[in-house]
Amino acid sequence: MYGNAYIDPNEKAAGILAGEDMQKLAEFEARIARGEKIEPKDWMPREYRKQLIRMIEQHAHSEIIGALPEGTWITRAPGFKRKLALMAKVQDEVGHGQLLYSAAETLGKSREAMINDLITGKSKYSNVFNYPAFTWADACVIAWLIDAGAIINQVANAKGSYGPYCRALDRICTEESFHLKYGHDNVVTLATGTPVQRKMVQEALSRWWPPIMHFFGPSDKISNHTEILMRWKVKMATNDDMRQQFLNMYVPKIWDLGLTVPDAKLSKNEETGKWEYTEPDWDEFKRVINGDGPCNAERLAVRRNAEERGRWVREALNTSESKYMVPFA
Amino acid sequence: MNNTAVKELLYKMADDLLIIGHRNSEWTGLGPILEEDISFSSMAQDKIGQSQALFQLLHELGEQEPDTVAFARGAGQFHNCQFVELPNGEYDFSLIRHFLFDHADQLRFEMLANSSYEPLAKVARKVKGEIKYHVFHANTWVVKLGPANEESHTRMQKALNEAWNYALGIFENGPYEEELKQAGIFDGEQVLFDKWLANITPHLLKAGLMIPLQDTWQAVNGGRYGKHTTHLEPLVEEMSEVFKIDPSAEW
Question: N or C: which end of chain A has fewer CB within 10 A?
Fold first, then answer.
């Protein structure tokens, strides 16, 4: 899992490039156009650095917050096989968080500052984790479909321009592909299991469908800002394109399992090749992303509490001999 | 060879590992630093995997499937020591428990690697390679946090004091100690305890931590005979919550 970063399409493009050295900017853009990677010590425009920090940081936060709804099912997982696999999966996610915080640190913001912004609510994480995982089947649906969505996003971003982020994503995607298999295997087991299990997984899918549709974010308005970010290979695909790709890959698989997607309008238009669906409730999306979802307060409280309880350990590590090191890129 | 004695030995070890693994896994997402989340999760996976291997040996001796035994018993049927079932508390307590328990388990598996009961000896030879890293992790952190600053020292000493008598309960004699010794299967808890004390002492000294005075030692026993604290039952209920929806279903 789990990353996707929400870039506000309404942010004004004006002023983004103000004060930049135009010659350096041209060289920078030429490098990206040639497919070169930008490395931490290379020159980069302020806006590039800012957006990357925001994006990688949000992705890292999503990993560690995403570990919470799934993590609560580790202690309940039914049987050795599932328990061991879920532990390994959630451990991977936390590891992705660690990797991504390191990638973001190469841009000049410390992990501590990022985590601080997370727990004070200044910095966002993937909206889906503001919803609860009510049953074991919810954890299975998350592992399959949210991870599937994340892979689409991450495979796209891995072709981006910032070297440390791309390298982190390459590794993350490899691990995610196992998570996807794990999630799919779980959902198949439930969907082909007893009536109780089938009911559990259908209910979980119905609950998670709206957050899944929200996952890639609202349609991008083609603003100057989006255009620049796409030219700089910070943003690699539009939200709608990624959503279409997801529907195309996974709706047939969901239907194959005899499960019902709770959207009567959902169908593929054979002429356009595009999926048609009921427009997700974007007001709800905005409400939840701004803090008013079913689990926002709980997730942040848990994270804040963990930070608070662990403070003495971090202080004990912070001795006179220890010094801050920017991670290797 | 007395299967009952071997089973009793396997059950207590498997239950210790299952329960401590479960507790370790509760740190997932909540560690004091991300690296410790990952470490505790990693050790939890090893412990749960090791318990599964021991339940498999029990299955080969005629007990039910590992999943059924692990996920469908009541708390009173567990033979783990009470130490492992205690809640995680703060990181200081979890770390001290990890240190005390893993030193004991390392010695136990080293001892069992030479057991005359070959199926167990084989598992033990694999497991001791894994536990080596758990012990290394525990030693590193105890020695780091023990003397780091006043707060960490106070916390670690307090945790050691609280954990100590429970830790002594790891070495509660089972009902078949003599049979196991005579058959060359297991050298017994007393031998293990003596080695354990000798092994942990230098690390605690280095960490500036004091073992509680001997006249206060009072092992918290009973776990090996199914007597538990009030903490085990909710743990077992949580662990089996989904499995018990339909124990005959494939999950």
Answer: C
Chain B nearest C-alpha distance from A313 (Å): 6
DSSP secondary structure code for residue A38 in this structure? B
Kindly indicate the confidence band of residue B12, based on its pLDDT and cuts at 50, 70 and 90.
very high
Per-residue model confidence as pLDDT tens digits over A116-142: 999 999 999 999 999 999 999 999 999
Contacts 24+ apart (CB under 8 A), A175-180: A175/A92, A175/A95, A175/A96, A176/A1, A176/A147, A176/A150, A176/A151, A177/A151, A178/A89, A178/A92, A179/A1, A179/A89, A179/A92, A179/A143, A179/A147, A180/A143, A180/A144, A180/A147, A180/A148, A180/A151
Among candidates A74, A196, A315 on the partner chain, residue whose Cβ is nearest the Cβ of B149: A315
> Residue A95: closest CA among chain B residues belongs to which residue?
B38
Kindly report the number of other CB atoms within 10 A of residue B77's CB atom.
12
DSSP string for residues in A46-85: HHHHHHHHHHHHHHHHHHHHHHHHHHTTGGG-SSHHHHHH
Residue type, A253: K
Q: Among A128, A279, A282, which residue's Cα sits nearest to residue A212?
A: A128
User: Under CATH, to which class is B3-211+223-245 assigned?
Assistant: mainly alpha
Task: Name which of B25, B52, B239 is nearest A87 (Cβ-Cβ).
Answer: B25
Contact B103, B199 (CB under 8 A): yes
- Tokens standing for residue B122: 């084989």
Give which of A200, A182, A212, A187 is closest to A87, Cα–Cα: A182
Structure tokens given for A134: 């009510």
Q: What is the ipTM score, two decimals?
A: 0.96
- Domain borders along chain B are 3-211+223-245
Domains and their CATH numbers in chain A? 24-302 (1.20.1260.10)
- Residue whose structure tokens are 């694999």: B126
- Residue in this structure with the two tokens 């410390």, named with its chain if needed: A110
Per residue in A24-79, pLDDT (tens digit) is 999 999 999 999 999 999 999 999 999 999 999 999 999 999 999 999 999 999 99
The Cα–Cα gap between A179 and B24 comes to 22
How far is the C-alpha of B244 from the C-alpha of B240, rounded, in Å?
6
CB pairs under 8 A between A and B: 127
Cβ-based interface (< 8 Å): residues of A facing B: 64, 67-68, 71, 73-80, 82-84, 87-88, 90-91, 94-95, 97-98, 101, 136, 189, 193-194, 196-197, 302, 306, 309-317, 319
